[in-house]
Design brief:
six-stranded mixed β-sheet; globular; disordered N terminus
Length: 181
């Protein structure tokens, strides 16, 4: 019996990986409306591109021990867009592991702060790629931070945002959705 249990444990370690079995797995980010490298549905894009500008639902798991808050970014690294910032959020409490559909500007966690995007307003600004430029990638990233609060404000580039967070990041995870017209 003991031998069978040991064989089963070794087999589990091989299949699942040591980190996953012992709780040290990597962070993962999901959306129920698009898969990683999948198409972002039209309702989540800007009205000028035919959508409703509703922020997509996002869920994450596997935050490392010591996480005191989360931050979120979404930007478009397409050469035409030049790292256009669609959404920046800081101070999401460590107890929050999801943002519901349409949360931006309506039902964000009370401590969370939405920063100004490249469109010039605070909150989510959905995809709006220029016609004829192909599918653009929209990179959503969640950062697990070792501080409860980050003091940022105004309009930041994705580079400025990530550089400001860098000293506090314990882990991060991303998914990319695509949209073109």
């Amino acid at each position: 019996m003991v031998r069978r249990v040991l064989v089963l444990m070794v087999f589990s370690l091989v299949l699942l990986g040591w980190e996953t079995l012992w709780g040290g797995g990597k962070m993962k980010l999901f959306s129920s409306v698009f898969s990683d490298r999948g198409k972002i549905p039209i309702k989540y894009v800007m009205p000028e591109a035919g959508g409703e500008n509703i922020s997509p639902p996002l869920q994450w798991e596997g935050a490392p021990e010591g996480t005191m808050s989360f931050a979120l970014s979404c930007y478009d690294p397409h050469p035409v867009a030049r790292n256009w910032v669609h959404w920046l959020v800081i101070n999401i409490p460590a107890t929050v592991h999801a943002l519901s559909e349409g949360a931006s500007e309506k039902s964000m966690p009370s401590q969370a702060v939405e920063l100004v995007n490249s469109f010039g307003f605070a909150g989510y600004g959905g995809p709006q790629p220029p016609p004829g430029t192909g599918d653009h990638p929209y990179v959503f990233t969640v950062y697990a931070l070792k501080v409860a609060k980050v003091d940022l404000s105004g309009r930041l580039s994705i580079r400025e945002f990530e550089n400001s967070l860098k000293p506090y990041v314990l882990s991060k995870t991303a998914i990319t959705g695509y949209f073109g017209r």
